[in-house]
Every structure is written in structure tokens, then in C-alpha cells.
Amino acid sequence: MSKRNTVIDLFCGCGGLSQGFIDAGYKISLGIDKWKDAIETFNFNHKDSKGIVADLLELNPVTVSENEKIDEVDVIIGGPPCQGFSIAGKRIIEDERNQLYKTFVNFVEHFKPKAFLMENVPNIMSMGKGAIRNQIIKDFENLGYKVSHQILLASDYGVPQNRKRAFFVGLKNGSEFKFPIPTTTNNKVTSEEAISDLTEHTVNDGTPYMHKYKSSFQKQMRNGNKFIFNHQITEHKEKTIEIIAMVPDGGNYKNLPKELHETRKVNIAWTRLNSQKPSFTIDTGHRHHFHYEFNRVPTVRESARIQSFPDDFIFQCSKTSQYKQVGNAVPPVLAKVLAETIKNYL
User: Fold this and answer.
1) According to its UniProt record, which residues of this chain constitute the active site (predicted)?
2) Which terminus of the chain faces fewer neighbouring Cβ atoms within 10 Å, N or C?
């Protein structure tokens, strides 16, 4: 049996990126995030890994090495929040809002993994006319990595969601990483194929499935599992239900009478999933998106399916927290494709 590649997941959230790497045969030694709820879910689902609650700004990789007895790491993964990037001219300036990203760089510098994968918002590529992207590449090149970067669309890789994310992959051995070729460009998984086997009403955790799976994606998500979790519906006000009922499958506020257009002040308001297309990006619980058929927002489980979490991945803490955990995650199915591709270079 060959030794499994070991991974540290920084800013790991509930563990979507980790899930993909585990599914690809890696061992996650450690996940770190400062959000306690996310780590609770991480530890509940990743029994062979250790998730710790810590602010990465205050964490020194040397201390982590000593405390967690980690000497060797093959891959470092994670998505440092970069919404605060401050730039001057063509470079990232030393501003505390940039330090989370710098922490990721420091961990790579200390552990010298064979590869790293850093995930981020798509506009990181164009911020400051490309200054941020170029600085990121330079920072890692200075540590001896050859860096590739690309924006990927999750629905091109079997995820039922049009979610775009930027990825940077660096390799220590001088090889140039080639991003995986899209696999489902012409046969994308639709919202209906993702969630049509889940019921309209609340199901208590641990209840057996009510329906047989109706698509290969549903079978894949069930993964031999027999029970359903995190499928508690949101009870909307009568007025809200009346308005949702007026919006057709795939429609939005434009399908409503004029006087109702202003009832919510966001342009994504009253949007229904389109049953025949992948979902739009699942957000962290803004609650303006509705099921393509039922007059309610998707449940946590439906949202998790759209993010490609397997059904035996069970979210912990309050429902509001669960929605946020799901929305913040990297889709595991996309993470697995990347993890398998990286494995070819290790």
C-alpha cells in the first residue's frame, strides 16, 4: 500500500476542499479555521483528520509543526479571504488585511510541500489590473514553485452549479501544472437532477429516503447512504409564499406584477432555480433564491447537493450557520478533480 499524500487545509471552513482531497485518496492531517461552527462540522465528518479553531493571523507554522507533530506535508490547500487586498501601484502593500494571504505563503515557506492549491474569488485575477495575481505568482516563485492559475466553472466538472472560482496551483519539482479539461461542458448536471428526489416538506434527521434516486448524480451523492439529514424546510410568511408562487421555474422578479418588483431591493430577488440548468452560485444564506418547484428556499441538504456534498456529510450547529457553511465551501466534486490531477505530479 503506497503512503497517502498528507495535506494541511488552511481556512478550511467546514471541509469541502478537504472532502474532495479525501475522496481522491489523500490524508488530511490538519484543518485550521477560526470559525468554531465550521470546525465542528469539519471534525464531525473528517474523523481521520484534526480540525482546530485558530486565527491564522496569530498562528506560527513553526508552532503548528511542534504542537501537532507534523514534519512532512505533501500539499497545502486553502482559500485565504482576499476581499481586503490593498494595493499600491503594481504590488500588494503591507496592510493587515493582506496578512491572511501572507499567512498562507508563510505556511508554504515553512513546510515546503511538493504542491499547493490556493482557491479564491474570480476577480482576484483582475484586481488592480492583474497586480494581485502577479504578486501572488511572484511570492510563490520566490519560494521555488512553478505557478499555474485559472478560473474554473464548477458546472464544467460535474457540479450542478455555475460557480466560478480562481485557483492557483504551484509545484515544487519545476513541472508546469495543467488544469483538468472540463468533463461536463455539454451535459451539465441540472438542478432537477441534483435535488428532485428530496421532498417538499421537512424530514427529521436520520429518516430513510422517501424516494428512489432519479439521476446518476443523486445516486452518486447518496453514495450507498440510506438516511437523510439537514432537510428542514424554512417556514415562509403567507405573503412570501403567494409571491413565490407567481414566479415560474427559472423565473425572477421580472415575472411578477410591476407593483411587486420593489418588494426586495436586490436584483437577484425572487429568483427560482431553473430545473433544466445548473443552479446559480449558492450564496451564504441571503435567501432570495427559491426551489424551482416548491414555494420555499432550498433546504440545507438541497443546497449541499447543489454544492456536490455527499449526503453522509452532515452539517452541525444552527440552520443559519449550516447555510453559511455550505455557501462558503469549495464544491467537493470539483476539489476531487483537482486533487486527482495534482496527484499525477507528486
Assistant:
1) 82
2) N
